[in-house]
Amino acid sequence: MKTKYLFTNLKLFLFITIFFYCFTLIAQDTETPKTGLSLIRTAEDADLKWGPCPPFMPEGCTIAVLHGDLSKKNLDVFFKIPANSDIPNHWHNSAERMILISGELQVTYQGEKTQTLKVGSYAYGPPKKPHTAKCGDAGPCILFIAFEEPLDAFPLVIKD
After folding, report:
1. CB 153 within 8 A of CB 89
2. Which residues pair with residue 152 across a beta bridge?
3. pTM given for the model
4. Mapping DSSP to helix (H, G, I), strand (E, B) and coil, where does residue 10 land?
């Protein structure tokens, strides 16, 4: 009888052990974490691929994607315009987080005073808020911009 009792307890112990083992395997995330490589870039990197800006932007305006995809969320770019260029009134669906890398840039958001960005200045632009800018004569203006939403830019059209 003692043997039957031990055998029953052993079966119960094995059943519980196997149950929890299987449950633990199923509950664990079996995917390998998706980690990428770190990234360091400067505006002078020869391997940057500079492409054109939207047609309403000033001649010589270019954009280089640093990280991400133009059509997806969380995109980082360098935005470059020649010295003495005016950026026309426009807006974006995304907020912009910017740091001026070179030049001097005057930025005016609708309903706000003009502010001057100098090298190293940080600026935040709210989503859908129209703004203009002017690059000074201290050389080309290069901005690092982090977009939360896919990249877009729409000229502000004022109806007569």
Report:
1. no
2. none
3. 0.76
4. helix
